[in-house]
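Quarterly update from the structural biology core.
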Amino acid sequence: MQFDWLTSGIPALFIILTTGILLGRIKVSNISLDLSGVLFSALILGHFGFHLPSEFLNFGLVIFVFTVGMQAGPGFFDSFRKQGRQFLFFSTIVIALTAVVSFVIKEITGIEKALNVGIFAGALTSSPGLAAATDASNSPLVSIAYGISYPIGLIGVILAVNIIPKLFKIDFKKEEQKYFESLKDDHPDILGRTFEISNPNIDDKSIKEINLRAITNCTASRMLHNEKAFTPNGETKFYIGDYVRLVGSEEDLKKAEILFGKPVEKEIPLSTKYDIRWVVVTNKKIINKNYKSVDLAETFNAQVVKIRRSGIDLTPTPSTFFRFGDKLLIAGSIDGVEKASKIVGDNKKMLSETDILPIFLGILVGIVLGKIKIPFFGLFEFSLGNTGGALIAGLALSKIGKTGPILWTMSSSANQLLRKIGLILFLAVVGTMAGEHLVETMQNQGFMLIWISVVITFVPIIIGIFIGHFILKINFLTLLGLITGLMTSTPGLGAVQSKSDTNAGPVAYATVYPFALVLVIIFSQLLVLI
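Predicted structure, tokenized:
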């Protein structure tokens, strides 16, 4: 036919993407599919003969997962230290119970082991699980069952992410507020307070002599002596009757009361010879160096009063490392602050620019990591694959921050754009592949395998929601990220991210995803053996 060229390659891709995005914008009872509409468009058009090269799928998937890792990396390691055990325990329980349900259904219905394990891997959308099950069973039935349950798993997670919050009447604005409040528990608000010096024990002693930082964890940003205001340094001495402006957390400022005396309601004016301003860390030469080694205070008499990183205010210490994109509140003489700003960089244009070398080099590192064979107690070997490798690379490199001249960072706008492009490419190819054989497979295998797939898809979601929301009281945005992570559902995470701009979902997803990959492989092997 003269229009066959529309059903394959680049024309087909853009037809699917355009119709899918338009479909995703349709709202029914205030529920929309958003970018997940691309999957449904691809399923329909795939059934009518549209097909796309598998290279689009792999390309989109590694870009999406790598950018998720880059976004989640800085918060991932903190989250793992704080909640890692809880999250891993949660994932183990949910996946183990799903495997148990899968086994029970096999015993009740009498379906073959290969079909059962194929449905299990497909419902959890795990390609490594499929590979492990196929290798252990050596049966083509695994792939057939996987082909039935995989699209159901994809669609099921997306529908659950969109519908369940409505059923529970979840207010995502409140969940975002709770998430930010939980972050403040670890990073309290940084406050400023003025103290009148009344302690005779520190009279005529310098900041270094009393070891202000070690005792209070506060920074002296401004002083008033003989009605003259200035920015202090390590050699500055305190005298009875002087006023000092300290910056720190509420707890730190209470420690300062013991040292200096009660706080007072007095503004210390900023001398015309002094300046205080926000500057942005963009100088590659100081990235990953600690504040002590750069020592702006000694070199330029310019004090770093406060750090703002990823929307969180931090108190600077000598061991704090400079990170690209940090905002620093610097106080000091006009000349000192100017020189310190040049050392820090303060090139705001660099924040909106994106160096593409770290992106593709980072993905390449991830692909290499994904090829490494990891032994499991001598029973079998597994690898993380391109997806798991790209995620690990994104997490690790974003945490490292810099290697030689290479900055492992991306602007938020670039990350968001690449993440969306990667996701819709992945959804388009997966949808057409599933749509091509879905009806035929359903007709040949019957509806029993379909309803089993539906059950196995929604069991981990229901169990996860029950344990996470009602027992563990996990923030709902974090909970949705955990569920999409333990089900290794990339499209599911895309649906979660459409509901909130916070890192709650991606951080939770990235925390459990690598562990979930391994768990699904292990339980797939066990379901073949028992």
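Residues 290 and 320 are 5 Å apart (CA to CA).
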